[in-house]
Write a structure and sequence with these properties.
The chain is mainly alpha-helical. The chain has helices spanning 9-22, 35-42, 46-58, and strands at 62-65, 69-72. 22% of the residues are buried.
Amino acid sequence: MDLDRTRPVWRQVAAIIAERIADGTYPAGAKVPSVVELSTEFSIAASTVQKVFAHLKAEGLIRTEVGLGSFVADQPATEG
């Protein structure tokens, strides 16, 4: 996937993941792809994906479970 390298990449990836949550690609309770999977998909560093996850968690869109991974929050925040 091509990203606009003139804007913060982590914000673009966070927006893409948030959109996937909103449109049901990743439904409530579903496991979000891992840091490795997303870093490969977007050709970005794992540390960048970790920043994306931290942002999405702060926004209430995902929750993390140590040793299990990240999951879509049961009631993801809605925009508007």
